[in-house]
Inverse folding.
């Protein structure tokens, strides 16, 4: 087991199936970048081998399939059953929900028990303004379908001062009413936000203000979260839970256990570090040699983690897997 000076090791793997996305969210990509896959993306068998080696070499216990938009990837139908057979405690998916209805059969027959859907507003016009693609009703119908089939649903929302901070309460009410857990993700200073202008500073709407907003209508208490959880979790008695992924306000770097595999075969140890490691040559090797090389690569990847806090990076989330 590879452990660093902070006692951190890789337990959670995020796998980006493709960099392509059917949205172009204002906070994720600059104009006109929708639907672009990486120049070369791993095939389903290559990705399955990479994941299987990582599970063995790093001791991965939890895996999340992401992207880009994972349900858009032609690999999804072949890769999901392969991943579901690996010795993992938990497999989940993060999606924008636009293609849930099309992929419902594959999803439900896979045995996956939970899913995160990204949704920043319940207002159809605002939805189009933020996502710059897709349709709100389609997402809501998809969520309903999976929920009625018994999947546990979490909703991810990125609150922004001028675009959707007024949606915090309606979104929370919607989630509480349906038994979904709402996760607010503090805006991260990544990609074009980091590279240009002061849009990030203008739009950042952090934990303190989120809690103040919720406190106007609800009473809540902070609850215990697992050691390496990135979310601070709150309970609204007799109603449910919500969480805040407070990258800025309460950084979780010192207990971060995440490892990322990008769709084009690079390992990233940290969202806030553009350094990455090409796993593709390892996929050509026999098992013994591959495991030895991967151990060395994982030591270097673990060293890429930030010590204390998220500094921001010009890398784009959809390329390395949000
Ligand atoms: N397409 C899928 C989706 O929409 O959930 C998966 C990929 S998306 C990059 C994963 C998550 O990253 C989404 O919940 C999205 O809101 C979040 N995200 C992207 N850019 C972000 C940023 N700059 N700050 C905070 N969250 C961001």
């Amino acid at each position: 087991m590879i452990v660093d000076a902070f006692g951190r090791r890789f337990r959670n793997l995020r796998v980006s199936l493709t960099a392509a996305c059917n949205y172009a969210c204002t906070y994720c990509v600059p104009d006109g970048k929708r639907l672009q896959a990486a120049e070369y993306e791993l095939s389903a068998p290559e990705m399955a081998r990479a994941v299987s080696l990582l599970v063995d070499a790093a001791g991965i216990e939890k895996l999340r399939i992401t992207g880009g938009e994972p349900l858009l990837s032609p690999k999804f139908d072949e890769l999901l059953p392969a991943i579901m057979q690996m010795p993992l405690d938990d497999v989940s998916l993060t999606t924008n929900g636009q293609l849930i209805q099309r992929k419902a059969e594959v999803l439900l027959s896979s045995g996956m028990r939970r899913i995160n859907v990204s949704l920043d507003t319940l207002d159809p016009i605002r939805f189009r303004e933020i996502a710059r693609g897709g349709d709100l009703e389609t997402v809501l119908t998809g969520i309903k379908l999976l929920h009625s089939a018994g999947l546990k649903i979490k909703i991810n929302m990125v609150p922004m001062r001028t675009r959707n901070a007024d949606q915090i309460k309606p979104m929370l009410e919607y989630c509480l009413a349906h038994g979904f857990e709402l996760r607010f993700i503090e805006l991260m200073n990544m990609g074009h936000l980091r590279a240009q202008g002061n849009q990030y500073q203008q739009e950042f709407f952090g934990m303190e203000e989120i809690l103040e907003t919720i406190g106007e209508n609800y009473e809540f208490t902070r609850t215990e979260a697992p050691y390496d959880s990135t979310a601070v979790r709150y309970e609204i008695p007799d109603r449910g839970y919500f969480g805040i992924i407070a990258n800025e306000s309460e950084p979780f770097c010192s207990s971060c256990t995440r490892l990322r595999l990008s769709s084009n075969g690079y390992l990233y140890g940290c969202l806030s570090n553009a350094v990455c490691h090409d796993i593709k040559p390892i996929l050509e090797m026999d098992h013994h040699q591959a495991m030895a090389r991967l151990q060395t690569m994982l030591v270097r990847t673990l060293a890429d983690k930030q010590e204390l806090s998220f500094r921001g990076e010009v890398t784009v989330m959809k390329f390395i897997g949000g």
